Amino acid sequence: MFYYPSPAVSELEHILTDNWGAYASNFSTAITPCDNYVTEVGEPAINSRRTTSAQWLRVAFHDFATADVAAGTGGVDASIGFETARDENSGTAFNDSFTFWQPFVNEFVPMADLLAIGTVMSVHLCGGKYIPYSPGRVDATVEGTFGVPEPSTSLEETLAQFEQTGFNQSDAIALTACGHTIGSVHAGGFPEVLEQDHITPNNTNGAVNLDSTRAVFDQAVVHEYIDWTGQKGGPLVTSFNESSRSDLRLYESDGNKTMMDLYASGDGFQDTCVGLLQRMLNTVPSGVELQPAISPALIKPINVTWDVTAEQQLVLSGKIRMLHTGEIPSDPVSVTFSNGYTESLVPEEGLGTSAFKLTDAQTNATTQYFAFSIPGSNLSGSTSFTVAAEGFEAQDFEIQDAAFILPSLSSVDVTAGTVSITLAARSDASDFDPSQLSIEVATPVLQPLTLTPKIVRTAVQLAEVESPVTGIGYWSGSAAIEPPTGAVSVTLLSSGKVIDTLLLDAGVAGW
Ligand code: HEM
User: Where would I find the H helices in 18-168?
Assistant: First the structure.
């Protein structure tokens, strides 16, 4: 299968862009609407008064908070998964979030990148702006240091801890206000902050919101604190227990200057939060190199793959996703292959909606899909295809047909604990030697002490089998794997170079 521009970016771009409607990513649905609690359903979810979008933001803060930028350790590396039993990480947010993210982890997408994208999504879908999202984080294999500030932590210690992460006093105040604009403090987990009588049948964890708009990423927390209205800055300002008023201590520590500045900055609050949260998410251990930020693709081929049909016909199939701003045309989209073959594709009926607004438009962008399925006989010799449509700059995408994994003949059998692969390779091309092909499989599996899967790599021995297609040989093999937690990735190499990839059993993380 061809993933454009790479499996990692293709998957993460899907999460970022396909938010609602047709082909919405299962990631977005967890925080739609923004006060949703994905871990439970129905009445228990509503009465829990927990908020998944807020949990994701809090998890990212706790993972980041123990960074030591001078030493080059800690930061966003999903080490928090090993640290959930600590007092400083009280609450269900960590295990709830990791349980939700677990099926999305695979060879190309580490938990730490999901943890970061969780914050990007919560902010972008729930009233804030897009935090430019760069992938490339690396999952920790052991726990990190202690040091997440708690409600009882002194001001001096709190500021020193923020300083260690590279955030000065006013950064620390603003970042905390950006965090505490969504979600709640729960009396159940924080009896030192809130009285237990907040716990009722309709509020089973005793949630008290941090501002009056619990699921909206807005400036309300700042206004309510300064104006002393609504939630007055939240329970960490107003707690009955003076030593638990950590937000009050922090906000007052510069004479409320930072909070007053945020108050006066209007929409500037959103830009301040984007800047600080981006810095937070991009704080990674030394040696980890983040990739360029991902932007939504205007033209995106999806699930493009060679396969052999039941009638033994070689076919290239897939879809093209177009991202529109403003009115949605009903015009066809043309796909022209490098051998000259062209098809005109008609749009599918269902449209999707993205949180992105393109080219300063006022409305959210819309996704439109165009499916194709083209016999290989029309495409012989093609090495790329060009997608062209009215109002879009045409774009080229590479393909190759020297050798490829056959999706319909490759599968994971969880009960048997095996993965079976069949690949097809040209046996009639003089410049291609099928004996140089090899297959590697990477399986995400459970590991002790954290909900982050680890990736186990396995080689698959191949043997030639009978092929029903002239000019094409089939090679097959299988290998034992542990039960996968997410997509099993299959990589086809020719003389050590990757020429095809297939994510098997992507489940909720798929299209
Ligand atoms: C001095 C620093 C901070 C302290 C002591 C602190 C403490 C707390 C506490 C005790 C809760 C209640 C958790 C619960 O009951 O589930 C909470 C909630 C939250 N915190 Fe912080 N926090 C701090 C800074 C931050 C920062 C910098 C962010 C993000 C950038 C953040 C994001 C959140 C969010 C989103 C929630 C709501 C969670 C939910 O509704 O489940 N916090 N914080």
Answer: 26-29, 42-48, 52-64, 93-101, 111-125, 155-164
